[in-house]
Amino acid sequence: MSLLNTGHVQAALDTLGLDIPIRQYNKSTVTAPEAAACIGTELGSIVKSLCFLVNDQPVIVLAAGDQRVDNRKIAAYYGAGRKRVKMANADQTVAITGYAIGSVHPLGHRKQHRY
């Protein structure tokens, strides 16, 4: 599977009955600030998908582009120790989602997980 292939994401959207077409741009949208600038919107209206490991299990966190994710809150939500919450590295992110850091979608991942 190509890391730039969005077919899995479009199929997931279609399966859910969501009429949302995927748009691709000639400018970089890898970071939330780049994505906001590209489409001319406020940073807070961009959603970033971040891959974490909680007790070695993958968790995708969706956060507003202008916010930082607090590992302590993730730990509390899952009843885990703070040290058991880590952001997935680049290789782990690709293995879990099928997409590289900076291009992780909120759905249509390589593997199906319960988050």
Reconstruct the topology from this structure.
Blueprint: H1 7-15, H2 32-39, E1 47-54, E2 57-64, H3 71-78, E3 85-87, H4 90-97
Antiparallel strand pairs: 1-2, 1-3
Describe this structure in words.
The chain is an alpha+beta fold. It has one domain (7-97): Alpha-Beta Complex (YbaK protein). The chain is 29% helix and 17% strand. The protein has 4 helices and 3 strands; from the N terminus they run ααββαβα. A 3-stranded antiparallel β-sheet has the order 2-1-3. A hairpin with a 2-residue loop joins β1 and β2. The radius of gyration is 15 Å and the shape is globular. The two termini are 23 Å apart. The model has no long low-confidence stretch (mean pLDDT 88).
What low-confidence regions span 5 or more consecutive residues with pLDDT below 50? none
Query: What is the CATH fold-level name?
Result: YbaK protein
* Sheet with most strands: strand arrangement: 2-1-3
Number of helices: 4
Q: Can you say what the CATH homologous superfamily is?
A: YbaK/aminoacyl-tRNA synthetase-associated domain
